[in-house]
Design brief:
The protein is mostly beta strands. It contains 2 helices and 8 strands. Helices cover 13% and strands 39% of the residues. The mean pLDDT is 87.
Length: 115
């Protein structure tokens, strides 16, 4: 069985995750989420004195053209959260200001899958 990892999206190093996807590599994870992956020059962080940096892959960018005006369902789900437009893909969603590119940190976590 090919190795897969759990990739999580974070607003910053210490933030809770916004979404997660099971993928073979960060490029596949970004593709599944609809974003564009930018790799760290040094690759995935596998060793650090700062535990918040472990597994850090770098950034996924979500272009402004992916976002659409919010409909009544989107507004109900967003509630009082700030945002003019939203991007949704299956159960994953992001809010943004009109014309804004959203960036999220991508972190890799090893997992064990039952066969």
């Amino acid at each position: 069985m090919e190795q897969k990892y759990l990739f999580t999206l974070h607003q910053d190093l210490r933030a809770r995750f916004h979404g997660a996807v099971l993928a073979r590599n960060p490029y596949e994870a970004a593709s599944l989420l609809g974003g564009e992956f930018t790799e760290r020059p040094s690759g995935i962080c596998t060793s650090s004195s700062n535990p918040d940096e472990l597994g850090l892959c770098e950034v996924i960018r979500f272009r402004p053209d992916l976002f659409h005006e919010m409909n009544a369902d989107d507004e109900a789900l967003a509630g009082s959260l700030a945002g003019d437009v939203c991007y949704t893909r299956k159960s994953f969603g992001l809010l943004a200001k009109r014309g804004e590119t959203i960036e999220r940190l991508l972190r890799r976590h090893p997992i064990i899958l039952c066969e």
